[in-house]
Design a protein that fits this description.
288 residues, Structural Genomics Hypothetical 15.5 Kd Protein In mrcA-pckA Intergenic Region, Chain A, Pseudouridine synthase, eleven-stranded mixed sheet, four-stranded antiparallel sheet
């Protein structure tokens, strides 16, 4: 528990402004959760709203030190590849979630402080690369619709075990998500509870000595673990993937996390995009 007294600087200011300024590591998500649970008291009265403060107000904050203190994780330096007034594109490192506690979104909330910042899609914890964020609600709604209509093209680089016989391929299958086990299953034929998926790849280069290949993968339907599970299903698991890959080979090659990177985003708008029309045709890419 933290005991605080409001000074003159914050006379007439909102509670969230005071607390976010006071605690560098506090995210809006944690703050609003504390308000919902009435874990903040002002002058010994529990509050559940972002109220206006006055000089000498006495505030008690019942939030853990871990959630209040500045993040110490190694990824606190955010690699912003592109941003403007409406969007932000970040190069996500491995070993960090896009959402949740100590996540990429958490870091960005602290980076932008009181600004609106929401992810428009997800990457797995150990998949690296480009993640698109909206900086206002209007942009978020437009971008979510564009992803739904497949008007934003995503390319991934995957290092896989084996050398595909086909240099290019369009793959269709059916995916079932088992949320309890945090696993997905792939079927070549339709089954109850399975959703259709579509993935394509092109071989960029191969290493016959190590028996690995580098693929450019296009994700046409964005389902959980789709690329990882789909490539493993056809016999080419991603190097370093402990869930769908070969642990013996991963250990031999010296990789503990999957070699999968989202390296390219292209805005291919086919319909009106409102305030984001200027993005049409724009391609954001990081080094392969």
């Amino acid at each position: 528990m933290k005991d605080l007294v409001v000074n003159e600087k914050y006379e007439g200011k909102k509670l969230n402004t005071f607390l976010l300024d006071t605690f560098n590591g506090l995210s809006l998500n944690v703050l609003y959760k504390a308000l919902r649970k009435k874990d903040i008291r002002i002058n010994d009265i529990r509050v559940n709203k972002n109220v206006v403060l006055h000089t000498n107000d006495h505030i008690k904050v019942f939030i853990s030190d871990e959630q209040l203190e500045k993040l110490s994780i190694e990824h606190s330096n955010i690699d912003i590849i592109y941003e403007d007034d409406n969007i932000c594109i970040v190069n996500k490192p491995a070993q960090i979630e896009v959402t949740g506690e100590n996540s990429l979104t958490y870091l960005l909330e602290n980076h932008y402080k009181n600004g609106f910042i929401k992810p428009c899609h997800r990457l797995d914890r150990n998949t690296t690369g480009l993640v698109l964020f909206a900086k206002n609600e209007k942009s978020l709604n437009i971008l979510l619709e564009k992803f739904k209509k497949h008007e934003i093209e995503k390319h991934y680089r995957a290092v896989v075990v084996g050398i595909p016989k086909k240099k290019k391929a369009d793959l269709t299958a059916y995916l079932f998500k088992d949320s309890k086990k945090s696993l997905v299953y792939i079927s070549d034929i339709p089954k109850k509870g399975y959703e259709r998926i579509y993935t394509s790849y092109e071989v960029l280069n191969t290493d016959e000595k190590l028996n690995i290949s580098v693929l450019d993968v296009t994700l046409h339907t964005g389902k959980t673990h789709q690329i990882r599970a789909h490539l493993a299903h056809i016999g080419y698991p991603i190097v370093g993937d402990g869930k769908y890959g070969n642990n013996e080979i991963n250990k031999k090659l010296g990789y503990k996390t999957q070699r999968l990177t989202s390296y390219s985003l292209t805005f291919n708008f086919k319909t009106d995009s409102g305030i984001l029309n200027y993005l049409n045709g724009k391609k954001i890419e990081i080094s392969k």
